[in-house]
Amino acid sequence: MSAVAIVLIVASHRRPNLREGWSVLAAVGKFGIVASMLPAVMSGTVYRWSLYESTGIRFLPGVDFALRADPLGILFALLASFLWIFTSFYAAGYMRGLDEHAQTRFFASFAASLSAAVGIAFAANLVTIFVFYELLSLVTYPLVAHNEDDEARIAGRKYLTYTFFGGGVFLLAGTVMVYWLTASVNGDPTLAFESGGMEALATAAQAEPGFAQAAFFLLIAGFGVKAALMPLHSWLADAMVAPTPVSGLLHAVAVVKSGAFGVARVILDVYGPGLIHDLPLDVPGIGEVGLNIPVAIVAAFTLTAASIIAMRKDHLKRRLAYSTTAQLSYIVLGLSMLHPYAMVGALFHIPAHAFAKLTLFFCAGAIHVETHTDYISDMAGIGKRMPLTLSAFTIGALGMAGLPPIAGFVSKFYMLIGSGYMGGEYWIFAGTLLLSGVLNIAYFWPVVYTAFFESEDRHDAKPVLEFPRGGIFESYGAGAEGQKEHVAADGGPSSADRSGSESESESDAAKSNPAPAETDDSGATDADVEDDDYDYAVDRYPSDADVPAGDHVSAVDHHGDHDDHLTGGPPAGGWPRHSPIGESTWLMLAPIAIIATGAVVLGVVPDHAVFLDLITHIVEGVFGVDSFDQLQGLSLEEALEVMSE
């Protein structure tokens, strides 16, 4: 559906309403098709299509371009297609609100990205998932580099280097090794996914354990690039230069989740928990450890380190980017613990994180569109300007911290139960989960506190860490006696000159060093409006008399220069007070409210939400049981024994 929509979107480039209508219709159609398969899949049906069976064409013996809709694939496809519906509306409001250029290319690339993401979800083997995995990197490049400035191009090249070349090479190498290993069993190679692991690979691993171990880590590294596992994570924060709808859906759902989904495929459907547990590494000085332990250690380190880094970021989207890096590692950590409960928690965290993080990104985008404010330290009192948006942000933040009644609590609770049943050295991972929850509160609470409990004239710096690598003591109370003016709030250049800080050169230069402005009769200045926002301002406020007091958006185009950014932060006199329904356009507010509500629903009634039922069905298939009740109360060894039987 979304692939067909690409043609229609491009053909409607002169009619924006029709162009964006195609995006919405394709999103609804795609979700409808995916949802229509759900009842049968839950009953045990697997939909399958094969190029070889249809045309007789295949790449190599055992290598076929094939698609299948199984429970794990439906989980990812259902989530991505459902959230695309609301992101289509939000993207229209965002792009129109900023009067962005190249909107046709943007919506066409967006549709292509959803096609590639669903291709990953429905891939039936390692070759098919590799094709769509690489295609996703290519079609999202125009979105990452959308701004077309030096910063965006550098971020786009870095994104391709990491995900297309780096991740693709690792994934291809691992795929080739799996092909060779399965061919060595009886000369009949296979790369097809099998719930619980590939039998041919398990047999080959007994004869060639070293190669099987190498292939496992290559596959994890290939998918780990998009899952932002450290040290393969730095592309994600730089990609935040993309428009916020891209950061939201593609970097909270489609792109990064494709990496986490790939890790799930490797652990659940290529190697399987049994083979991973029974194919240990001999570590000098430690002894034998399962293949899952190194992956779990990397994930635990990533979620802790990324949370600490997020604490020192003053730029809101970059704080959210490092939060994403941490949250994705929850999924990898839960999967790598191998216990059924931990797996349920990890897989449930895919939709839980998607709903909460999409809410957070939507809120960040709405704040940028309405106030051109990107730095947390400039948001003191902004809650009265955007009460609904910041209330939704609070809900998303609670979900990220794993607090009830938001969905993130359910997923992390399952993972804690799983680590408890594991016992032994796995208690350290339970401790990591609890510590990360505290760190999540530490870097999200300042945003909420700043918005609702501080005033424009009395506030402090927002990065939590106060030392040279995290912030400077003088960042509190700048301008007070004995302290320096314009000191850094996040360990970088000062607020008076952020032009080199956090890859936000143009935005911060315009913000910190505005050109001299002339005031007209209405009180608006040249810095208040730029050409790119003129049409939006006219639609919102037909005349200067309609501009709310204190709002720094004018309906009059006072200059002909393109600064590309308005100044952020509160206007003179403080933030104007707005009602929740009047703080932005319905195109942006409705998706924010709906997605935030979805995060609550998933947390309050998970048993009645389709995702938890689907996930328990996935885990039942992996361990070969008829009911998840058969796995309750079992240790990992007991669960694997049930699986082998």
TrEMBL record:
Transmembrane feature ranges: 24-51, 72-94, 106-133, 159-181, 211-229, 249-271, 291-311, 320-342, 348-367, 388-407, 427-452, 586-605
Protein location: Cell membrane
Keywords: Cell membrane, Membrane, Oxidoreductase, Transmembrane, Transmembrane helix
Region described as Disordered: 482-578
Highest taxon, organism lineage: Archaea
GO molecular-function terms, A-Z: oxidoreductase activity
GO CC annotation, single: plasma membrane
Compositionally biased region (Acidic residues): 518-536
Annotated ranges, domain NADH:quinone oxidoreductase/Mrp antiporter transmembrane: 123-430
InterPro entries for this protein: ComplexI-like_HydComp (IPR052175), ND/Mrp_TM (IPR001750)
Extent of Basic and acidic residues compositional bias: 554-566
Membrane association type: Multi-pass membrane protein
NCBIfam families from the UniProt entry: PRK07234.1-1
Name used for this protein in its record: Monovalent cation/H+ antiporter subunit D
Organism: Haloterrigena salina JCM 13891
